[in-house]
Design brief:
This protein has 164 residues and is of the alpha+beta class. Helices cover 27% and strands 34% of the residues. It has one domain (2-158): Gcn5-related N-acetyltransferase (GNAT) (Aminopeptidase, 3-Layer(aba) Sandwich), CATH 3.40.630. The protein has 4 helices and 7 strands. A 7-stranded mixed beta sheet has the order 1-2-3-4-5-7-6.
């Protein structure tokens, strides 16, 4: 697999992977992937990557960063989203993608990546901790999802490059 910048041509595959994650019920409060225009507009330029099989061109997973706030004091703080197609899970693509995001954000001077993960999503929690994220706490009953209140584990990774 190679990791490269996400492009508009990836839209159908990226949104299909996202929807598969949403259908699993442990990835997000969202239940339906948005239209590509809304999806792409919410991601920060230069911080959206895909893992692609170079032989087939198949997108196997993606990672992207979004701003956590429009306030200028939070310009160096982003939130990540990461999804791997079900057929490609358990092969190290999550690590490959998250490391690509860490590299692009650090090169841009971003000092913190945040992640909010359902406690039941143990694979994502392990992946984030393996790549340097630490648990800050649990936001209890922060939102309703499929008619039940859900907790969210809040994690962050501080850059080792930006000096903070």
């Amino acid at each position: 697999m190679i990791v490269r910048a996400m492009k508009d041509d990836d839209a159908d595959q990226v949104l299909a992977i996202y929807q598969a994650g949403l259908d699993g019920g442990e990835a997000s409060f969202e239940t339906v992937a948005p239209a590509w225009e809304a999806f792409a507009a919410a991601k920060l330029p230069g911080h959206a990557h895909v893992a692609v099989d170079p032989a087939s061109g198949e997108v196997a997973g993606w990672v992207a960063a979004s701003a956590v706030s429009s306030r200028c004091v939070y310009a160096g703080v982003v939130e990540n989203s990461l999804y791997v197609a079900p057929a490609h899970q358990g092969r190290g693509l999550g690590t490959l993608l998250l490391n690509a995001l860490i590299a692009s954000t650090e090169a841009a001077g971003i000092w913190t990546i945040q992640a909010g993960i359902f406690p039941e999503n143990t694979a994502s929690l392990r992946l984030h901790e393996k790549t340097g994220f630490r648990r800050l706490g649990v936001r209890e009953r922060v939102g309703r999802h499929h008619d039940r209140w859900r907790d969210v584990v809040l994690l962050e990774r501080r850059s080792r490059v930006t000096g903070l």
